[in-house]
């Protein structure tokens, strides 16, 4: 059976969505979830299953690479997802901390 083709969000649509998310009750949380879906390709179940160990490095800082084990994904090997710089551009008071260089 053939799956559905994913719909592409244009850059202008992405900006409009991010603008709307700024007006929600939890804008930082909502932006992180949207960007994890858009930029890292995570599904809702994968986002809901994330733990701090999957998003932080050994020093406890937000890692540049996200480890999503097979037990969390659909089992098709979403082992590494690069964090986009847009995830690090979120406010520190509720989003990720600034990217360490």
What would the keywords be for this entry?
mainly alpha; 2 strands; disordered C terminus; two-stranded antiparallel sheet; 101 residues
Structure report:
Helices cover 38% and strands 6% of the residues. It is mainly α. The chain has one domain. Strands 1-2 form a two-stranded antiparallel ribbon. The chain is globular. Residues 92-101 have low confidence and may be disordered.
In short:
This protein is mainly alpha-helical and 101 residues long.
State the order of secondary-structure elements, H for helix, E for strand. Answer: HHHHEEH
Report the sheet with the most strands, covering strand number, pairing sense and barrel closure: 2 strands, antiparallel
Care to count the β-strands?
2
Q: Averaging pLDDT over every residue, what do you get?
A: 77
Tell me the overall shape: globular
The CA-CA distance between the termini, in Å, is: 46 Å
How many DSSP H or I helices?
A: 5
Low-confidence regions: 92-101
**Number of structural units classed as domains:** 1
Q: Report the sheet-strand fraction.
A: 5-15%
Instruction: Calculate Rg over CA atoms.
Output: 14 Å
Lay out the secondary structure.
Elements: H1 11-21, H2 27-40, H3 44-48, H4 52-55, E1 65-67, E2 80-82, H5 85-88
Antiparallel strand pairs: 1-2
């Amino acid at each position: 059976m053939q799956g559905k083709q994913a719909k592409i969000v244009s850059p202008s649509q992405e900006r409009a969505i991010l603008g709307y998310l700024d007006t929600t009750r939890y804008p930082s949380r909502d932006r992180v979830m949207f960007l994890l879906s858009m930029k890292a390709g995570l599904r809702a179940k994968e986002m809901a299953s994330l733990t701090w160990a999957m998003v932080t490095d050994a020093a406890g800082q937000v890692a540049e690479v996200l480890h999503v084990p097979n037990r969390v994904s659909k089992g098709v090997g979403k082992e590494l997802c690069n964090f986009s710089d847009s995830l690090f551009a979120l406010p520190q008071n509720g989003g990720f901390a600034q990217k360490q260089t």
